[in-house]
Amino acid sequence: MTHTNDPTPPPVPAPEPTPQPEPRLEPLPDRIDIRNLFEALLRRPADLAGHPSIDTPATLGRLAIMAFVAILVFGFVLGTFAYHEQLWAAPLKLGVGLIFAGLICFPSFYIFSCLAGSTASAGRLASLLGATLALAGLLLLGFAPAVWIFTQGTSSFGFMGTLSIGSWLVALGFAFRFATTALKVQGARQRGPIAIWCVIFLLVTLQLTTSLRPILGRSDRLLTDEKKFFLQHWSETAGKSLTECRETPGDE
Amino acid sequence: MRDLLDPPIQTLARAGARDLGRAAVVTAMGFALYGFTVGFWRSPVMGLYVAVKMPLLIACTLGCNGLLNGMLGLLLGSDLGFRQSLQALLSAFAISALVLGSIAPVTFFLALNAPPPDSPQATTAHAGYLLSHTTLIAIAGCIGLLRLRRLLEQHCRTRRIALATLGAWIAGNAFIGAQFSWILRPFFGSPRLEVAFLRDHPMRGSFYEAVWASLNRLLFDSVPGLPGFLVLLLILGGLFYWMHLRLNQPRHTRP
Questions:
Q1: In which domain, by residue range, is B184 found?
Q2: Contact call for B205 and A154, based on CB within 8 A
Q3: Which of B25, B31, B36, B138 has a Cα at 20 to 30 A from B239?
Q4: Would B135 be classed as within a structural domain?
């Protein structure tokens, strides 16, 4: 046992910096207005999820308005890529698409949150879903100026599509984090069911980019009845540009 | 000056109009001074143009990403509001501006001594000039970021939050900053092109498409499927790195 006679003492590990405690914040007011909602979504997701008035129709309405207005603005920014009818068509499609995705995914949100252990009522879950979408919308608003810069520069569908989907994925990532935190506050103990629901919602929104096409490019029709899976549509249009689309209307 | 080079934590907590104004003025002056020496080699007029454009580049980047930076700061748990995020980023830019402003006399000397743009060695001189300025800007940027990292580590509850916030800010600002540098080009002024404040149709095209096209021309023309394969490799690498980080996270056990 030579190591016991070794005179050099073992190196002392550097002490881990002690994490600072969370700052104490004032409780949210009883009546949550848009400004408080905005701050709570970004700064205090757990407080918002546990707030007694989160499941009131007024709060749900405010959250829905936030999500809808934010997505309309982002849609308008995307519409400036092709201008013309897309200035109103793209925001309309994104707004309707978001509501549609929220509505068709709400039943599964309820079931999967119950599977995860949540005890929240359907009304409360509706508000939490509204808050999730509002947060995603707010983040898209944050991305909007940067995306607009690129809509004015490029004419490539591949580039604009990647940028838009990338922004949506980042926004949705934070929104899902909010939903997970909110459901934990409501008693959820398992992550698996929540993760599955997140994947379902993500796939629905990605498919909507194809079902509601064209969102970026121009066409002589508002919607198309041709059925396609989103990966196929993306791979077909990635190499095209806006100028090609103008030459062959209805193609994109 | 020392407060700007090593901003105390109180500056961030306060983020008053005076602090913001001082950081903004120093950033503008430092970059303007340095920018003048960057463009001066091509012509004194170009120097004046770049002296305006460099602070403009910072202002456009921070202005465009202001909302996003503030939201990311809050969402990632750094507890930094919109003003504080702006203060933190401006502090980093102010440090870089001070570094670059302090070496502006040296780069001015370099511009005076480099072979002029109408000489036979202009192309070589331009390449060397480009390389040296890019190196200097990168060094100044790194110093600013290291100070910002320290500031965030002092302010945030955990080191992880500080690094996540810093990473998100760097990614967002670098992404849009590169595009603004494309829009506001030229900065160095190619000897073959006319001196101009902006190129014709400055908004046309994007930085990333230009880089992609150059890469294609340089490397991939002979192997058609290579760009897609490399992108796939990059995505997979990122995924593995993320999984590696997740797996190495310390697990918290419930009592």
A1: 2-203
A2: yes
A3: B138
A4: yes
